[in-house]
Write a structure and sequence with these properties.
75% of the residues lie in helices and 0% in strands. It is built from 5 helices and no strands. It is elongated, with a radius of gyration of 17 Å.
Length: 119
């Protein structure tokens, strides 16, 4: 009976359905990303500011990938896509920046929430 429980637990964990354990470093990186998004000034977008945002998202992605945090990988990949889209634009309007910022705010909030609600 115990063997069956252990095998079931191993099968479930192999599927990636069990969230990663809480990690202070990953939580801090998620908060840094949220902070960087909150600092984005769309009235006067600065390429250096957008580069810093992209860098923070990339650091979180690399850390989570290295740690094998499979439960948030898709969320981070979507945020990377959003931040890369903003960074790769040569120039953009304030409404475009505001739309991207709203998406980034929601994505960073979801990621931070997912990371911090782990046990």
């Amino acid at each position: 009976m115990r063997l069956a429980l252990v095998l079931t637990a191993l099968l479930i964990s192999a599927c990636g359905s069990i969230p990663s354990f809480y990690d202070d470093n990953e939580s801090l990186l998620a908060v840094k990303v949220r902070h960087q998004v909150s600092q984005l000034d769309c009235s006067a977008p600065d390429k250096a500011q957008i580069l810093e945002l992209k860098k923070q998202v990339d650091i979180l992605a690399l850390y989570s990938d290295s740690k094998k945090s499979n439960d948030i990988g898709e969320l981070i990949a979507l945020m990377q896509e959003t931040s890369n889209g903003l960074y790769n634009k040569e120039s953009f309007s304030t409404p475009y920046c505001n739309l991207k910022k709203k998406a980034l705010e929601l994505q960073s909030k979801d990621i931070a929430s997912a990371i911090m609600k782990r046990f």
